[in-house]
Amino acid sequence: MKLLSDWGITSDWWRGLRGEYWVIAQGVLLFCFAILPNEQPSFINIDSPVWNYSSLGLTVVFGVGAMILLGRSLFDLGQNLTPLPHPRDEGQLVQTGIYSVVRHPLYSGVIFLAFTYASWQISWVHFLGAIALFIFFDAKARKEEVWLTDKFPAYSTYCTSVKKLIPWIY
């Protein structure tokens, strides 16, 4: 229970005041992604070396990107880590390390992992699932940024210089 309270989860979590419902929805969405069927597009010859090498290349690029984003964000965030989109009461604004490249690298890492799996399986269903995760994390980040702007006045300036989910792009 101490870990939950350290993360900012309170006994009235059911009210959703710190974004608890976002975390629940995220868990449901990730579970649904995991149980999606692998469906390759019918127009693709899976045995073709072109598709195999293209799939492998995309898998490596997305996978390495995901590992860098997730690993560095966990390291850089340190004691500020919480599963909730609401910042910890005693938290600090982190703008260095991977956070100088993208504002929400944990979300980005999960999105990249989803695209990694979709490209590895050459699954159009998982590709659509990865897009759904992108849309979800974009909305969750938007809500989180309202709280971050309220808590940290410097956050607005930070948003103008660092992209939200895709490093240097979006």
TrEMBL record:
It is found in: Endomembrane system. Keywords: Membrane, Transmembrane, Transmembrane helix. InterPro entries: Phopholipid_MeTrfase. It comes from the Bacteria. The chain crosses the membrane at residues 20-38, 50-75, 110-137. The keyword Membrane applies. This is Isoprenylcysteine carboxylmethyltransferase family protein. It is a multi-pass membrane protein.
